[in-house]
Amino acid sequence: MQPSEIARLDMVAYWRWVESCEREISRRVEAAERMSR
Fold first, then answer.
1. Residue 1 has pLDDT above 90, yes or no
2. Domain of life, per the record (predicted)?
């Protein structure tokens, strides 16, 4: 998502997007940790 797209979001949509990003980051970290074992 580009900054101009973020600027058009209302706050509810923005926080939903932030939560989605946090879940994706956590998923990738967990996957990387599993691969390194």
1. no
2. Bacteria
